[in-house]
Amino acid sequence: MAKSHGTEEERPFKCDQCGLAYPKQYLLRSHQLMHVQAECHVCKKVLSSNYALKVHLTQMHSDDGNQICATCGKIFRTKAAMERHIKEHMGLEPIERMQCEYCQKWFNGKYNLNKHIRFLHNERGQVFRCDLCAHESPNSRALSYHKQRVHVQEKHECELCGKRFKRKLYLREHIASHTNVPLYTCEYCGMKFNSHANHFTHRKNKHPEEWEAHKRMRMLKKMSKH
């Protein structure tokens, strides 16, 4: 009597991690590569497989869009800024507190101080007009945001479903819904998210005590460094 397709006799090579079985040993070996953990060389996050690492690198650390910190979800516009931030998480790069000479506000590092002075003090009193419409912005950063939000075309297309987005970040979060590889994890309950906004709202609404305690600790740290 002929054996039915897919019996244990026909698929003797079984994966000891997920239970899938294969008729040939080389097919099992190829499959087992999916279970090999791989570490991201940028942020040191450990992924469940080489495929997950590839998706992570594309979504989080590609050179053609915003960079997302896998630890806290903070977004950076350049890879260099992202790498500096990761070093701060790892304790490899100390953060120097610097004070604004105009308003005495404190900032973490020279980069944040210079950005504050440029947008809040150097451009104060100026009007930045959009060359595409009649909109006026208080500084160049606000004008840039206006153009991206209103005038930028939806040029980032999902290869899986064809949906288009204005920003690369929105496309990355959308692709995560296809791949089921979460971008953010709640540090209080472990719940995972594909959206930075949902991650933020979840922590604030579902863990209000922890959220407030976290805010108080950050405030105390700032005060202790003054």
Automatic annotation (TrEMBL):
Pfam families: zf-C2H2, zf-C2H2_4. Keywords: Metal-binding, Nucleus, Repeat, Zinc, Zinc-finger. Its main location: nucleus. One of its GO terms (cellular component) is nucleus. Residues 13-35, 67-94, 98-126, 128-156, 156-180, 184-212 form the C2H2-type domain. The keyword Repeat applies. GO terms for molecular function: DNA-binding transcription factor activity; zinc ion binding. It is found in: Nucleus. The keyword Nucleotidyltransferase does not apply. InterPro entries: TF_Grauzone, Znf_C2H2_sf, Znf_C2H2_type. This is C2H2-type domain-containing protein.
